[in-house]
Every structure is written in structure tokens, then in C-alpha cells.
Amino acid sequence: MQFRQAVQNGAGVMNFLVDENIPLAHEAFNVQGRVTVFSGRQPSIQDLAETEVLLVRSVTQVNQQLLQQASKLKFVGTATIGTEHVDMEALQQRGIGFASAPGANADSVGEYVLTALLALAEQQSWQLAGRRVAIVGAGNTGIATGKRLSALGMQVGYYDPPLQEQGKQAASYMTWAEVLQADVISLHVPLQNNGRYKTRHLLAHKELAQLGSSQVLINASRGAVINNQALLQRQQEKPLWLILDVWEGEPQILQPLLEKVAIATPHIAGYSLNGKVRATQMLYQACSRYFAWQQAAPDWQKLMPDLRAESWHCDSTLNQQQLAHWALENYPIWRDDRKMRERGVDAQGFDALRKEYPPRYELMSRHLECDRLSDDERERLQQLGFNL
Ligand SMILES: NC(=O)C1=CN([C@@H]2O[C@H](COP(=O)(O)OP(=O)(O)OC[C@H]3O[C@@H](n4cnc5c(N)ncnc54)[C@H](O)[C@@H]3O)[C@@H](O)[C@H]2O)C=CC1
Ligand SMILES: O=C(O)C(=O)[C@H](O)COP(=O)(O)O
Q1: Domains of the chain, first to last
Q2: Which of 19, 58, 360 to mutate to test the pocket of ligand 2 (most atoms within 8 A of CB)?
Q3: How far apart are CA 6 and CA 322, in angstroms?
Q4: The model's pTM
Q5: DSSP label at residue 24
Q6: Is 245's C-beta closer than 6 angstroms to any atom of ligand 1?
């Protein structure tokens, strides 16, 4: 109906090809043309032949081979932060426009790390306040994570030589030696295979050997930032506390490593529905600018289910246990961990878990009603992502 209206209104009839896991894309883009949805990692040759706008996730390799099959392609959008699956040079050579979604799922990743750490701390009876955290990569996801962990009372420092060398100030920079001594190390760097700031195997045998067995290592960036063979060996000899969302060689992970991980998930740290919809919005805006669309943008608030009605009441003191209770009620991370162990061992199961991922909402989607709060407590809760 909307498509017919667009044609009648004289709007350009453009052919969009969209990954099925980009929520609200169909609703948003069908006003601009014909939207075909594809599933799996690579779209079909037939669909590509007619496509003018291709919207993908990180599992689709946008390379020379794909581009050869898409002679009408004008624009590629990826609903992700990481862009290593897109051959930018090839796009430039062919004059194809491009957009990604920087920062769209940063809060989702921050909440993932917060929830995972609180879950583990409750399980092991650890107090997190006062412990030192090293955030490796002080970009959108790193800062979103650091902000939450410092609101727990943890001492957060950042390691980011590219930023530091540009003279950009993060709250407090650490040296690499300090990173390796932190109680918790959380990785938030892009995967870079070469160059001065190479991150592939940033942690390999040598670095892992320097860590103590009480340290917590979290990877919600890209699997290959840690050499997974070296990590497995380390776990077999003297295990660390590991929280892994990403795995080298996804979707086929190193199976024996799964048993050695405290919390395991199938690359879903950024999968809050809020984060995914924010990415769709960003791609819509990028397309709208690129093609100079005249129509008003969709009413995202109407399209997105609103959970604010489901409020929580805060009637106890704000201790770690209470915060863990809310975080885990909002995002039951142990459910993801269980499913990962049941089905994530092979490539098919890993992909299926991601494809069938249930809607997960960020803490801001609910309302927290508190009777009495000091200014400091209010600020801390807001920093943790609560909507007061
Ligand atoms: N698990 C998941 O679901 C998600 C994973 N990611 C991954 O996390 C990565 C980071 O995401 P954002 O924080 O949004 O990216 P960003 O681009 O905002 O920040 C990355 C930061 O890493 C720094 N960096 C680069 N090389 C470095 C090195 N060798 N050592 C230390 N710092 C270095 C950069 O200077 C930058 O400040 C993405 O590239 C993506 O691969 C992102 C979102 C979700
Ligand atoms: O944004 C990124 O970068 C991510 O890692 C995504 O959250 C992962 O999503 P997919 O595109 O792999 O579904």
C-alpha cells in the first residue's frame, strides 16, 4: 500500500535488498521503493542483479565478487559498527555510496558488559567497587562501558594509543603494562589486521602469560583480537575468568574453549532492540541525505514498541545486589550463556542463535520509580543507564 502510494506520488522506485535482521527496515524503506528481504550470509545472484541499495549486517561480505553481481548498486549500508566485512576501496572505485552505524549499539554493549560482570560477581560473591578496570579502546562502546563500571564504584582507566597520540583526552589513560595488571580487562577495539595499531591477536601467548588467574578478561569486540588457540592453552593450564561474546573464526568457534569460559554468548552484545533500531534509523538518514529524499522520515517512536509502562519500584538501598537484580531481570544473560553452550558449538547453531535472538531492551526502556534518592545516587543510576 505504502509502496503504491510512493509510486503514485512520483517518488523514485528504488530496489532495496535488506538483511532480514535489520528491524523496521521494511517499514521504513518501503515508502521509497521495493524492499526485498534476504536471509543467510550472502544474498542470491538474482536479487543482487536488481539491487540499488543493499543493507547488510556484519555476516555479509561486500567484496569484489558480490559487487560484480550487483551492476545497478548505488549505495551500501551496514547496520553495524565494525566495517571489516566491506571492501571500501572497491566501493569507492565504483562510485558506490556507503554508510555504517557508528555508536548505534554502544549502550547495548555497555549494558552487556555491566550485566555480565554483575552476574559473575553475584555468582562468585565478589565486591566490584574499588577494583581496577582497563578499557582497551576508548571509542563509543569503550566509553559506554567505562561510564557504567565507574558508576559501580570501579576505578576505570583507558588504553587507546591512536586517540592519545591525537591529543584527545579520555578520563584517564593507562599504559599497556597497567592494562595487563588490571582486575578486569574489557576489549573495545576494531579488528585491524595490520599497521601501527594492529589489533589482531593483541592478546596472544606472551600477553596472556602475564595475566593472573584472578583477573577477568572480557571480549565484546571481535574474536580475533585474542588469539583463541593461545587462550585455550592458557585456560587449560591456569584459567582466567573469561567473558566472551566474540570468537575467532565465527561462526565456527574453537569448541573446547567454550567449556573454559565463565560466560559465553554468540556475538550479541550489541543486540538490544534499541541499538538495532538506532542503526536502521542511521542508515535511513544516510540514504535520505545521499539520495536527497524529500519525504518526511518515518515516525520511529510509533514503530518501536514502548516499554516505559513496565516500571520498577526502588525501595531498597542501592547496593550491588540490587543493581544486579535489576540488570539481570532486564537482560537474563545466563539464558544466553545456556543457549550458547547447547547450540553455539557448530556454525549452524551459532548463526541460528543470532538470527532467532529474542527482543532485548536497554534499561532506559523501563522507568525506575524511586521515593528517596540522593543527588549522587540519582546520578549513578543515570550513568548506569536507568531511566528515572
Ligand atoms: N560484540 C558486539 O556485538 C559488538 C562489537 N563491536 C566491535 O567493537 C569495536 C569497537 O566499537 P566502537 O567502540 O563503537 O568503535 P569506535 O570506533 O567508536 O572506537 C574504537 C576505539 O578503538 C581505538 N583503537 C584502535 N586501535 C587500537 C589499538 N591498537 N589499541 C587501543 N585502542 C585502539 C580507536 O582509537 C577508537 O577510539 C567495533 O569495531 C566492532 O568490531 C561493536 C559493536 C557491537
Ligand atoms: O556493530 C557491530 O560491529 C557488531 O558487532 C554487531 O552488533 C553485530 O551484528 P551483526 O551484524 O553481526 O548481526
Answers
A1: 14-100+273-303 (3.40.50.720), 106-264 (3.40.50.720)
A2: 58
A3: 51
A4: 0.93
A5: T
A6: yes
